[in-house]
Design the sequence.
């Protein structure tokens, strides 16, 4: 009956009623707090001390986790396997990177007060029009959401209108990110070509190289993940979320019920792209660079693996998957870099063949088992009452 | 031995001194009178003699005239023998007989008389030398000589050239010679010469026409401009043909890379992301074959065709049995799993062989090019790959249309359940189809090894393009793949000169993305009930 | 969508102003006209000069051998397939050939597929919720809340189709017959004016069939129902009017008795021409 009860509430606050969301938020905030305390309160050199480097690394993982959540929203609940979500992530990242570039001001190598170094190097004499406004933080932050959202809107409008779905859609999303990668590699595009945007100094006046800013970015990313998670949860527990699932499982049937399926797909796709853009924007100041390699099809498909490993259509599974794979990547590339691609490849095969529901599926399975055992234990009592 | 070899020329010399058989032979040699005629004090007579030598068509003419030009044709004062001085340093010069070109020991420079020439004769000689090759019997040699003359004709050559043109049998050579002559005439302001230059693609012709077009004489300038316009048009046509050729060549590569995918994707609905790596395996097979058969790149390449097919097909079967069969009906998961396989295969090659590119040698019969005309030549390796792609396509068509396997494959594609109930073992068909599609990828790899570097990333570079081709052509339709591959190749090449390679590629990708929106089922969609599923 | 279409949509901006009742004009009697409809796939005529009229509130059974064009006919009415020629009108106001599937659905034409398709991952309750007639645009769907009224209506239909006890189970675990009923229930939630039901009793047990017959006959009167069915016993038990399709056109029309004594029908059903097995 609980589902009926919660469905009477305002859609955005609905997730707070769910046990799973409460648990997720609890764990997330506890982790954020723990890292902060271990970083600030425990003296350096102590075995429990968390270094600024590690805080930074965790911050990067959290932005990946948000990206994974955005992919799970479209893949898990809408059945659209996007192999191009890296593109939205990268575009959000570039929007942030453009702001950070403009913040450098005249402190660049060439000391030009307006033009970023690479433009001076290319002998450009003025900013291209699409760089205008990025000196203002609010504009850049709006663009972080609007730019990927707009791309998703145009692309999705064309794709869903003509009912391109399934593997076809996957392939053309891959082609999309591939085309963008090639485009961003070109110097003429005005995004720094091969090298991308880098040498950032400060964000909103905070020096990016200080430990305090890094901690702040880590926490901000954690909060963004929480908010993104709640938003996605609110969507999937709403009637719209159920229409999405209906679309995923029986698109034609949903259409005959009178839903304009393509509009629902477009809506969810655009929301997801914006979340991916936000993730990219949080990622860039933490790693200090954005370049076209974020557009590479391999990265996009790797995101999908995080979701698959964690368990699709659960949202928290996506977070778990992103953290697990990226932690493993850090460890592996540290001790035996050659083996990483073997491990990653094997993981793809293993997860799809043996673990179709991911880690979350395993958890749910165990939970169900204990539930069943409890039920069986309770049954005789119920029979008597 | 060394003693003997030193001694022998001297001995020969001695024999000659005493007017022995060699000298007798010299009297019979038709060259003797030709040279005799040169030994005269009158320069006018010498000029005439030179002409006679040229017209004689004697094979030795070139060396005679070159020697004469350099002052090395000399005559022995005592025995009147003609010699060519090999080196004129010191007192004694090594010489060779002027008729037989055999070395004739050393002679004192005092014993020799030089056949002298003056400046006028020097010019005549130089021209004569350039005309000389026009008298040889081999038409190809004459054509090359004629081509060298373009832009290098001067006044003294006009008359002999006219004579040569008159007597020339080969039309091509005659045309080139008239052009050479016409360039000279045009330089002199002869408007009618332009008629002879029309339609020539030669650089020299174009430059002389260009300067004529800027001339003060309006008649000349107009005529030259008109001729230039005609040439430009012909050049454009040539360029178009070249673009078409490059486009078809690129397209044939795309077709090769994509057609295996079209089979596995079209028949089984399986997205094999490791397809690119199967191509890579084919390419590495070629490389391995060449390592096994060093020094025989041609044989290795030919053997690689079946070997590459086999290696890739076996790898394909392994992928099908090891991964894909567990993911029936879950195309998106198949996509992810095979992507994992592709990562493993790439890393395997990096670890086992090398992360660096490997060079595959092209056999001789594959290098070089075919010249169509002066502005257009086609590289042979691309021509072979184009032919190979068409052969593979035809072969596949044959397999699909005429064999039992093809029939079963088509049955399974159209209605899996029905085919099963008819007694077709769908699993076996799946394996065979996958092996076939993978094997064709291997063939693509063998062909690609002749065009690009063979490295671990080889396959990755083709996978997205291949998918685009299959999707563009319409899934499950081999003709569609052929047409799509070739036309995408041509579109790419047509765009390239305008916007550059990268942008051309981007435009093609965007074009396909838009095209799929318009026609989600590709160029040649499957129709009817089967397509609805 | 073209500019013109989006302009046309403008009059639907204020949905609350539009009358809630279905705007179908049935003053002239029939709710569905199909006139001279032909569909050809690559030259094969799946529907050939079909003429069919369904009256408001009527229960009509359509029978015919496999390949007679029954499913294609439903595809045309619901907007999935465009006919090569002919006209299809819903009431005397709506030209169905100019509309797409969701538009037709929101006009009040509901369809039950041959293969039961319910949303297996969603609960029975939510299946019905999605089917309910409501504002089906994005934002209203996102912010939709469950009211007591809606719940009562869903419970009522759950009662009708006998799935009350299973309301929170995912639809995927239902038996075949239960899925068929759920689908009919979903159609009821839509409050359609015209119900198209494709082979509702395929794979059902005897009792399930009886219940389905009850359900369908109960609907007629308020709604017009078109049933396509193979099972002659079932058709006999519910049909008042029967139309026989053969090779894409109407072969005979009338009561069950009239039709089954028609010699041409007998030939089609018993003759050896019927190549495909049922």
Sequence:
């Amino acid at each position: 009956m609980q589902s009926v009860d919660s469905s009477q509430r305002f859609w955005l606050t609905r997730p707070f009623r769910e046990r799973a969301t409460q648990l997720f938020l609890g764990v997330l905030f506890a982790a954020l707090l723990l890292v902060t305390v271990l970083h600030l309160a425990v003296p350096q050199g102590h075995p429990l001390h968390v270094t600024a480097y590690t805080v930074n690394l965790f911050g990067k993982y959290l932005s990946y986790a948000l990206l994974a959540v955005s992919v799970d929203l479209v893949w898990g609940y809408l059945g659209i396997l996007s192999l191009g979500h890296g593109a939205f992530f990268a575009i959000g990242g570039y929007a942030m990177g453009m702001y950070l570039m403009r913040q450098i001001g005249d402190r660049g190598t060439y000391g030009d007060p307006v033009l970023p170094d690479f433009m001076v190097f290319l002998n450009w004499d003025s900013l291209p029009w699409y760089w205008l406004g990025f000196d203002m933080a609010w504009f850049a932050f709006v663009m972080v959401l609007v730019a990927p959202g707009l791309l998703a809107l145009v692309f999705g409008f064309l794709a869903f209108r003509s009912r391109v779905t399934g593997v076809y859609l996957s392939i053309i999303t891959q082609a999309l990110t591939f085309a963008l990668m090639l485009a961003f590699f070109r110097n003429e595009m005005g995004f720094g070509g091969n090298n991308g945007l880098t040498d950032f100094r400060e964000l909103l006046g905070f020096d990016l190289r200080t430990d305090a800013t890094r901690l702040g970015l880590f926490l901000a990313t954690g909060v963004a993940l929480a908010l993104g998670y709640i938003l996605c949860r609110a969507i999937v527990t709403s009637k719209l979320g159920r229409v999405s699932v209906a679309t995923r499982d029986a698109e034609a049937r949903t259409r005959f019920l009178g839903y304009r399926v393509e509009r629902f797909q477009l809506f969810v796709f655009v929301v997801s792209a914006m979340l991916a853009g936000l993730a990219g924007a949080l990622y860039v100041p933490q790693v200090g660079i954005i370049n076209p390699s974020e557009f590479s099809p391999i990265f996009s498909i790797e995101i999908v693996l995080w979701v698959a490993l964690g368990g699709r259509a659960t949202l928290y599974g996506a977070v778990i998957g992103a953290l697990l794979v990226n932690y493993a990547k850090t460890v592996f590339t540290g001790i035996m870099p050659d083996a990483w691609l073997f491990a990653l490849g094997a993981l793809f095969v293993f997860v799809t063949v043996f673990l179709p529901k991911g880690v979350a599926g395993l958890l749910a399975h165990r939970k169900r088992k204990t539930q069943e055992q409890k039920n069986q234990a309770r049954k005789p009592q119920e029979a008597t009452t | 031995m060394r003693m003997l070899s030193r001694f022998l020329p001297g001995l020969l010399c001695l024999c000659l001194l005493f007017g022995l058989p060699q000298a007798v032979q010299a009297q019979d040699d038709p060259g003797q009178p030709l040279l005799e005629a040169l030994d005269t004090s009158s320069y006018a007579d010498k000029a005439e003699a030179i002409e006679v030598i040229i017209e004689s068509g004697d094979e030795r003419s070139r060396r005679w005239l070159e020697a004469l030009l350099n002052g090395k044709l000399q005559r022995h004062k005592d025995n009147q023998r003609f010699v060519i001085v090999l080196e004129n340093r010191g007192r004694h010069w090594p010489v060779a007989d002027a008729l037989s070109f055999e070395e004739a020991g050393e002679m004192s420079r005092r014993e020799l008389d030089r056949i002298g020439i003056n400046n006028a004769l020097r010019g005549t000689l130089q021209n004569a030398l350039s005309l000389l090759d026009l008298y040889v019997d081999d038409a190809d040699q004459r054509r090359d000589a004629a081509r060298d003359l373009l832009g290098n004709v001067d006044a003294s050559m006009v008359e002999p050239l006219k004579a040569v043109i008159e007597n020339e049998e080969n039309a091509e050579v005659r045309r080139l010679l008239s052009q050479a002559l016409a360039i000279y005439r045009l330089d002199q302001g002869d408007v009618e010469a332009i008629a002879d230059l029309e339609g020539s693609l030669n650089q020299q012709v174009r430059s002389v026409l260009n300067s004529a077009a800027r001339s003060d004489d309006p008649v000349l300038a107009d005529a030259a401009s008109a001729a230039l316009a005609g040439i430009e048009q012909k050049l454009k046509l040539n360029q178009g043909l070249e673009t078409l050729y490059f486009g078809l060549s690129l397209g044939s590569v795309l077709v090769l890379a994509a057609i295996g995918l079209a089979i596995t994707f079209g028949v089984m609905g399986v997205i094999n992301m490791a397809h690119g790596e199967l191509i890579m395996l084919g390419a590495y097979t070629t490389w391995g074959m060449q390592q096994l058969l060093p020094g025989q790149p041609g044989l290795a390449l030919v053997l690689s065709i079946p070997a590459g097919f086999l290696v890739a097909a076996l790898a394909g079967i392994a992928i099908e049995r090891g991964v894909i069969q567990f993911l029936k009906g879950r195309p998106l998961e198949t996509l992810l799993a095979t992507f994992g396989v592709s990562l493993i295969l790439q890393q395997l090659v990096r670890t086992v062989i090398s992360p660096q590119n490997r060079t595959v040698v092209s056999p001789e019969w594959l290098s070089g090019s075919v010249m169509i005309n002066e502005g257009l030549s086609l590289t042979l390796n691309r021509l072979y790959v184009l032919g190979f792609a068409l052969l593979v396509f035809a072969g596949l068509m044959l397999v699909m249309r005429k064999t039992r396997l093809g029939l079963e494959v088509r049955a399974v594609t159209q209605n899996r359940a029905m085919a099963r109930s008819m007694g077709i073992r769908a699993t076996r068909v799946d394996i065979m189809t996958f092996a076939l599609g993978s094997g064709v990828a291997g063939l693509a790899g063998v062909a690609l090894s002749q065009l690009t570097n063979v490295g671990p990333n080889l396959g990755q570079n083709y996978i997205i393009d291949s998918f685009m081709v299959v999707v563009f052509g319409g899934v499950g339709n081999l003709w569609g793949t052929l047409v799509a591959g070739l036309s995408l190749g041509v579109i790419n090449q047509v765009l390239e000169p305008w916007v550059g390679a990268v942008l051309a590629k981007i435009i093609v990708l965007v074009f396909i993305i838009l095209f799929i929106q318009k026609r989600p089922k590709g160029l040649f969609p499957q129709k009817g009930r089967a397509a609805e599923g | 969508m073209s500019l013109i279409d989006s302009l046309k949509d403008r009059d639907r901006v204020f949905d609350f102003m539009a009358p809630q009742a279905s705007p179908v004009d049935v003053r002239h009697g029939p709710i569905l006209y199909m006139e001279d409809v032909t569909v050809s796939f690559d030259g094969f005529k799946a529907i050939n000069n079909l003429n069919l009229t369904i009256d408001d509130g009527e229960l009509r059974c359509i029978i015919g051998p496999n390949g007679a064009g029954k499913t294609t006919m439903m595809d045309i009415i619901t907007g999935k397939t465009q006919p090569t020629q002919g006209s299809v009108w819903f009431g005397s106001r709506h030209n169905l050939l100019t509309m797409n599937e969701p538009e037709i659905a929101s006009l009040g034409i509901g369809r039950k597929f041959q293969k039961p398709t319910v949303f297996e991952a969603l609960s029975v309750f939510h299946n019905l919720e999605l089917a309910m007639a409501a504002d089906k645009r994005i934002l209203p769907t996102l912010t939709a809340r469950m009211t007591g009224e809606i719940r009562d209506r869903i419970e009522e239909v759950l009662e009708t189709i006998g799935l009350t006890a299973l309301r929170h189970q995912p639809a995927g675990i239902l038996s075949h017959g239960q899925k068929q009923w759920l689908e009919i229930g979903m159609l009821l939630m839509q409050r359609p004016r015209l119900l198209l039901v494709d082979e509702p009793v395929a794979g059902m047990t005897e009792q399930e069939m009886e219940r389905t017959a009850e359900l369908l006959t109960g609907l007629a009167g308020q709604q017009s129902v078109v049933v396509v069915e193979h099972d002659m016993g079932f058709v006999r038990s519910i049909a008042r009017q029967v139309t026989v399709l053969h090779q894409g056109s109407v072969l005979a029309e009338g009561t069950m008795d009239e039709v089954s004594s028609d010699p041409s029908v007998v030939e089609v059903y018993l003759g050896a021409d019927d190549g495909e097995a049922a």
Q: What stands out?
A: Confidence is low (pLDDT under 50) at residues 10-21, 272-278 of chain C.
